[in-house]
Amino acid sequence: MSTTRLKNYIGGQFEDSDKHFSNIRPVDGTLICEVAEASKDQVDAAVEAAKEAMSGQWASFSVAERCDMLDKVADEIERRFDDFVAAEIADTGKAHVQVKNIDIPRGAANFRFFANLAREQQEKSWTMDTTDGQGATNHIVNKPIGVVAVISPWNLPLLLMTWKVAPALAAGNAVVVKPSEETPSTATLLAEVMDDVGMPKGVFNLVHGFGPGSTGEFMVEHPHVDAITFTGESRTGTAIMKNAADRLKPVSFELGGKNAAIIFADADFEKAVAGTIRSAFSNCGQVCLCSERVYVERPLFDKFVKALAQKAEKIKIGRPEEGADMGPLISREHREKVLSYFKLATEEGATVITGGEVPNFGDARDEGAFIKPTIWTGLSEDARCVREEIFGPVCHIAPFDDEAEVIGYANNSDYGLAAAVWTQDMDKAARVARQMEVGICWINDWFLRDLRTPFGGVKLSGIGREGGIHSLEFYSEPLTICVKH
User: Fold this and answer.
1) Which of 73, 359, 327, 88 is nearest to 199 (CA)?
2) Where are the alpha helices (DSSP H) in 250-383?
């Protein structure tokens, strides 16, 4: 991968463009590289290349041949593991342990998982009676949906991009991918991998750029894009959906969250504290599943707040190569957004238990986008900082007195992505979990994922489900063929 300029990948060729933007290292604000912003003509060319691939060599591939190709992609990601790790860390500033153990391994695993799932998928058929007594058979054939626009976020760049690309290709589609402008590097490496393994031209296309008035808008408005999959902010999802509505394009959205963690007094205290530290501050709080609202049963409240603050203050902040537990936010611009909420929280009456400020290192890291893990108490349920997604290393802790009350608090949100319930009473856990208005509810854990299960949210947290057969179904069009006997 070029260290000076990242290019687009269109129809099997790497292409520069007339406009470029800077990819900035969030650890110290230095330049990583320049990135070619795709023009409208280049986006058009990428979509047309994908469309041509759907009637070319790729269309002649059997399911087994497609899946074998995805296995080769996984093999090549693993062969270039160190390159992917370095690129992801440069773009995000994440801790080594997360990138090496989660982000890049899952990026490769997504291709293998969906390849194996597609191999095992069986076509269904039913026989039926007819008035002449001869009967008929109905065969269900899964056909690719066509050209899929994939718009992926910056918080888990390779993982969430491959979470969409892998099933789309396994189902026989061609893709046009736009990674976040904040994290273009591993997407470019993946384009190199696709090229190296001999993926047919036009099956995988990569276009860099921004949203409105740029690459993202050109993609979702294109008449030959057949489906759109997007992970990101709810506001952006709304804009994309409006653009898709005119042509009734299917959409799959995994959007924001304002997730609740519920800690009952009978919870395993140490596990609940450790789990909530993870769910509030992992990846500097930049995970859509993070717990920004923590509700603790009143007898445990003071003890829990104290213990969580002590653990938060022990989180080592800094460069990934220094063994830091937590890196920076993705950019100084995003940090300004998070800091604006910190200011708002004090105006709304929050008590700052810990954090709430920018660390001072006295070196180049002060030019980065670091922020301290922050815990608040004392806000009302209608405070903006309790209702709006902040997407930073922050949580608000509030007490509750009974089960019905806390269920009401947890569900009183415009979002509905995830929840975590901590209790040793499994009957209560099951009862509460079933009442959560979310797409996934963990009991005594957080971020534990079986890739076969559906993933997604309700309300402003998304539309549709991804994962396992649910992904393959979104990227396929079922065709019923009725044969009269």
Assistant:
1) 73
2) 269-281, 298-313, 332-347
CA 99 to mean position of chain CA atoms = 15
CA 340 – CA 141 distance, rounded (Å): 52
Active site residue: 48, 254, 292, 466, which one? 254
Q: How far is residue 292 CA from its own chain's centroid?
A: 17
Spatial contact of 443 and 429, defined as CB atoms under 8 Å apart: yes
* Cβ pair 378, 349 in contact under 8 A: yes
Q: Residue 455 has which token pair?
A: 């993933």
Q: Smallest Cα–Cα separation from 94: which of 3, 185, 163, 22?
A: 185
Q: Is 37 a catalytic residue?
A: no
Longest dimension (CA), the chain: 87
Question: Is 254 in the active site?
Answer: yes
- How far apart CA 23 and CA 182 sit, in angstroms, is 7
Indicate the angle between helix axes 63-79 and 185-196, nearest 10 degrees.
120
Q: What is the C-alpha to C-alpha distance for residues 485 and 473, in angstroms, rounded to an integer?
A: 29
Say which residues have a Cβ less than 8 Å from residue 475's Cβ, sequence separation at least 6.
Answer: 144, 145, 148, 167, 168, 170, 171, 173, 227
In the beta sheet, which residues pair with residue 395? 375
CB 452 within 8 A of CB 467: yes
Q: What is the pLDDT along the chain (485 residues), one digit of tens a residue?
A: 445 799 999 999 999 999 999 999 999 999 999 999 999 999 999 999 999 999 999 999 999 999 999 999 999 999 999 999 999 999 999 999 999 999 999 999 999 999 999 999 988 999 999 999 999 999 999 999 999 999 999 999 999 999 999 999 999 999 999 999 999 999 999 999 999 999 999 999 999 999 999 999 999 999 999 999 999 999 999 999 998 988 899 999 999 999 999 999 999 999 999 999 999 999 999 999 999 999 999 999 999 999 999 999 999 999 999 899 999 999 999 999 999 999 999 999 999 999 999 999 999 999 999 999 999 999 999 999 999 999 999 999 999 999 999 999 999 999 999 999 999 999 999 999 999 999 999 999 999 999 999 999 999 999 999 999 999 999 999 999 999 99
Burial label, 467 (beta-carbon count in 10 A; 0-12, 13-18, 19+): buried
Q: Which domains does the chain have, with CATH numbers?
A: 5-255+461-484 (3.40.605.10), 259-450 (3.40.309.10)
What is the spatial distance between Cα 102 and Cα 272, in angstroms, rounded to a whole number? 22
> What single-letter DSSP state applies at residue 455?
B
Sign of the alpha-carbon dihedral angle for 1, 161, 116, 85 = positive
Residues 33, 67, 284, 288: which is the catalytic one?
288
